[in-house]
Amino acid sequence: MKTSTSTPRPLDLIDLDTVLSESEKAVRDAVNQVCRRSVLPYVADWFERGELPAVRELAKEFGAMGLLGMHLDGYGCAGMSAVDYGLACLELEAADSGIRSLVSVQGSLAMFAIWRWGTEEHKQEWLPRMAAGEAIGCFGLTEPDHGSDPSNMRTRARRVGSDWVLDGAKMWITNGSIADVAVVWANAGAENGGIRGFVVPTDTPGFAAVDIKHKMSLRASVTSELTFDDVRLPAAAVFPDVRGLKGPLSCLNEARFGIVWGAMGAARSAFDAAVTYATQRHQFGRPIAGFQLTQAKLAQMNAELSNGMLLALHLGRLKDRCGLRPDQVSIGKLNNVTKALEICRTARTILGANGISLEFPVMRHANNLESVLTYEGTVEMHTLVVGQALTGQSAFR
Fold it and tell me: What's the mean per-residue pLDDT of the chain?
């Protein structure tokens, strides 16, 4: 029987590093370094101001690293593994959920939609520039009145001669007002295949994007409302080979996979802050880390962080080997986001009043995770996806 002689490390008590390859650790470390250099010194200020002023510069820096669409092949994309992409999302969200959203929406929603469903012309026109960070994309699915039920979307596409004309609105769209291209899903009517996807250059007449203000979450992120007023597009703008919800849901599953990892990055950051604070904060003549109640909190937080990381890694290995079913992605998002939020809330109690200060990352992560909890599938929707997989019975209606 072998016994490990390694020294315990609070951020990796189960020695997860030992099952990562050297190239995987190199990807993780490279993203960690760029976040330390270009995000962490500024993100608390961005969050407080409710701005992401360096978004174009960040996109180009991430593009130069190969982070944008990194799990896609060809067209300037890096063609890396699902685990590589997951580790990148982990480090990006350890910096801030808004930064991970920038990369996730670019690569897993807008770029993946074009890569998977677009024509060769779409791919050649947009993917190389998007991979380099020279063009930014957004993904228009959610509407002001329809989030969890996109089948009833009100945005319409109609045929006018050989052209398409879009009318409607999309809400809570990351990157919306800074995007050069929008992937937009609209109801074209039963006679035209139902829900269809369109590649919409944002300089098209009738397209408008307005930033959403007064957010208390994802403040270091560009979030917009999109409107379409007689937006006329050529016939070639439509995705030719996908109809119905299969198109947008395939993209969402790609992005949700990144969230499975990213949420653990936010949790790790909050846990790290709690451990450091507990060893430095003295009460009653000793560090609060020496009290049983504090140690109980830290032990439970670490257990949930370790479990979430193991789940993310398993799903990543599975995705690389044979792909993932939607219910497997739902299990990952449901578990890891809820547990990450619990970790952040518990970390806040260890920091006491300091836990609400932007001098520490804890409340910023907790606030951000409140958005991550409900975007790209609410807790309720993912619970029902898992429930249907378990019972064979649909309970959505």
Answer: 95
Q: Region 322-349: what's the mean pLDDT?
A: 97
Domain 137-237 class in CATH: mainly beta
> What does the buried/exposed string (b/e) look like for 157-193 if buried means 16 or more CB atoms within 10 Å of the residue's CB?
beeeeeebbbbbbbbbbbbbbbbbbbbbbbbbeeebe
Q: Mark out the alpha helices in 208-291 (DSSP H runs).
A: 246-280
- Per-residue pLDDT for 142 more than 70? yes
pTM for the full model?
0.94
Contact status, residue 133 vs residue 62, Cβ threshold 8 Å: yes
Instruction: Determine the pLDDT at residue 146.
Output: 82
Which one, of 273, 276, 176, 264, lies nearest residue 228 by Cα? 176
Fold (topology level) of 246-391: Butyryl-CoA Dehydrogenase, subunit A; domain 3 (1.20.140)
The answer, yes or no, to whether residue 376 has pLDDT greater than 90, is no
Bridge partners, residue 77, by sequence: 74
| Domain residue ranges of the chain, discontinuous segments joined by + | 12-131, 137-237, 246-391
| Positions marked active-site | 376
Pick the CATH number of 12-131 from 3.40.190.10, 1.10.540.10, 3.40.718.10, 3.20.20.70: 1.10.540.10
